[in-house]
Amino acid sequence: MIDDTQRAAPIVQASAKKKRGVAIQREVAVLLAMIVFNLIFTQHFVSLQTFNVNLTQVVTIVIVGIGMTLVVATGGIDLSVGASMAIAGALAPMLFMNIDGPLGIVLAFTLPIVAAALCGVFNGFLVTRLNVQPIVATLVLFIAGRGIAQVVTDGSLQAFTNPAFQWIALGKIAGVPFQILLMLVLVALFTWIVRKTLFGKFLLVTGGNEDAAYLSGIPTARVKMIAYTVCAALAGLAGLISISVNSSSDANVVGLGVELDAIAAVAVGGTALTGGKAYITGTLIGALIIQLLRYTLLAHGIPDAAALVLKAAIIIVAVYVQRKRG
Amino acid sequence: MAQTPLLDMQDIDIAFGGVAALKRARLTVAAGEVHALIGQNGAGKSTLIKILTGAYRKSAGTIRFDGREVDFRTPKEAREAGISTIYQEINLVPFRSVAENIFLGREPRRFGLIDWKIVQRRASELLESFGLRIDVRKPVRDYSTAIQQMVALARAVSSDAKMVIMDESTSSLDEREVELLFTVVRRLRDDGRAVIFVSHRLDELYALCDRVTVMRDGQTVAENTMQQMDKLKLVTTMLGRTLAAVVHEDSAVKEANLAKRGPVALAAQGLAAGAKVTDVSLDVHAGEAVGLAGLLGSGRTETMRLLFGADRPAKGTLDINGEPASFKSPKDAIARGVAYLTEDRKAEGIVPELSVRDNLTLVCLPALTKRGVVDVAKQREIVDGFIESLGIKLRSPDQPIRELSGGNQQKVLLARWLATHPRLLLLDEPTRGIDVGAKADVAKIVRELRDAGMAVLLSASELEELTAVADRAVVIRDGETVAQLDGAQMNEASIMDAIAYGAGAESTLAEAVEEAKHDR
Question: What is the ipTM of this complex?
């Protein structure tokens, strides 16, 4: 019995690895090619500073992108992540600036994320109960959410210095910024969730064939609700990192345009926007490709405006490749 | 039929991917007649219509319409030549007004502008001539399906169509709406236009049509007047069964099996929902296989969905293992040991991108989970077990299911349900679209499950397959149970009889079979 499983297992695992490898192989190849290009042509590329700068630039995009991957896997999309970031970013300073000591810090990390998660519950409610198309449903908070954040803060910029709170962005462990480690832990955690847990399977089934999921007794509405809630909560966390980096919170600016960067990272990372797939590591690689492209262009004196056009071009190529892969 | 017919299609051939869909098909329709075009699913009637209307191109044959030879390349060309098609899903513009829809693209103009007053007046006049008084300024989507059909017909009439094709136009209408529609169709006929009427409801064909063309396996197998084609002849021609072939032998085995069956597992009384299911009653015992027979569109799938909680019944009661059940969703039904293999494997069954392993364990997955994490070892054990016991052919269980053949996909889906250890198995067309070998395998599996004490309810369009597996049959027609045939009484002849004549009818076909036996 034991012999049998052991004999069968290696074949199965080998083919499984091959399968997963194929899925984001191309993205990894592109990323490696860009790194090689920079090693040869870009001055001062090999330095801890370059490494840290490039990675810290993508942290918020990747964290938001993880949630976006979950939502996209259900066949949906979330345009309101930037607004969720702004709401969390607006609430946190009000808590740690008004409540002293560890309690203020604890509340500043929890309540804003809960508030952001509630935005996700609202999105999920519109999508699952009222059957509003995800792009329209999340457009509601895309528009209103930032308004809420501005009302909360009276539209004023909150500047602060609070090392305890800002450690999430500025702290370092063994020379590596904590936010990068946090990002990698989240990537690993959600990769595991998607591959190994019941929720992960249900997520892919809900997006892969919703009718089949329903007839199999899978609670598709609850699965979607969880995806939207987790997505918004992660956006809230990204909002806290964003304000910590800047030592200030401006409801007009926090998370502005992040939804498009996150969607781009998801698409470039090989997750089909039609649903049924979720490549969390792909999203990380997608975000790195986009960031490295921008860095490369800047390092070679090409203006940011032109970089935007190239960013669009790479998304088109990525989506085209995906369609061919079918 | 003395004069040349309005439409004359002869020897039409077409093939899709090397498989012949039509072989020398014929269709002849005269002006001033309502012509029924019938056949089983896949018999080729839709393909023939699509060739006529220019959606497909024939590879051989001739089409003569209105005195000249034609070969429409696009639906637009067919429309301009005077052929108007009304599909099941009506192609009107939902948000535009009734009047606009009727005159779309042909609006009466004045000084280059559309004269809305004339448009509206002419539209109301036209609909009034159908006996329909509605506000033509309201958007089409505000009206019922029947009225939308009527608007589509009005559009056909006003465009001086010489021929109107109605493809299953009545399938979503209730009785009163059907009657209203028929009045309009008869008026079209009396005006000298031709109507091709595609429907699976036999009674409607007899109420409305003058002549009939029957298709089977891509060929035209009968052309006749409705009067000379009685219902029984129509059904046997359609299903391709002759009297000699329908006598069944092993009814003794079925009787013996019925004698030792277990208690009632499923009892449904007077189920009704929408227009498709009006009054279905049936029961299934443990250890028996019951066939749900009926023509396409008779409400088989809809009945199965009600039994599984995928749709909710408006009326009727349901008992599972002797206790009343009211399923809000499939989840509830699954919890009570009910399994449902869908008829539409692609749309409702497989999750194409997911592996065979995940597809197979989809329903039983929660049971294989500890604190939210899937027990991969257990999952592998179950999957490997079913791959062996059902003889599923694949490269690896991690292969996406879309790469498997239809028959193997079907076995995976069957295993998906068997892995939940159901007590009642609902199989909707389990052999649809799979090859002969896989069909035999599925039949064998069903017999084994029945012998192991499971209650099985299965439907099949092919009566031969149904009678081969089922111990008895429940026949439904137009969403109503019309007959229950046990063991010895059940054969293809008696089922066709019930489909044709319904309940109280004396089994004329069975008598004919008896006579044939005596003569021999």
Answer: 0.80
